Amino acid sequence: MTPRLTVPDAAAVGRRHPETLRKALQDGTLHGTQRIKRGPWLIRPECLAAWLEGEQCAHQVAEAAAGVVTDIATRRAVHASV
Question: Where is the Helix-turn-helix domain (predicted)?
Fold first, then answer.
């Protein structure tokens, strides 16, 4: 399993403010996971690298091609409508 970065670690690596990363995670432009609701974000290094380059990471592209909902805003909208 690839080690994950916390927001402070990813911010240091990417030389960005942690709040910038949190906003990107919340709007889905940076891919990350939370094991529990409101838990700490965990970010794959390859996802951070893609985001810093202004691209989607490889697994996001594959999931989008398969029709899987990956961004949190869409997931929240789907969940709210149920």
Answer: 5-54
Spatial contact of 40 and 6, defined as CB atoms under 8 Å apart: yes
* Domain range list for the chain: 7-81
Number of helices (H), then strands (E), belonging to the chain: the values are: 5, 2
Is 73 within 8 Å of 27 (Cβ atoms)? yes
pTM reported for the whole predicted model: 0.73
Task: Give the sign of the dihedral formed by CA 80, CA 24, CA 31, CA 5.
Answer: negative
pLDDT digits (tens, 9 = 90+) for 27-46: 989 999 999 888 999 999 99
The angle, 0 to 180 degrees and rounded to 10, between the axes of the packed helices 45-52 and 58-65 is: 90
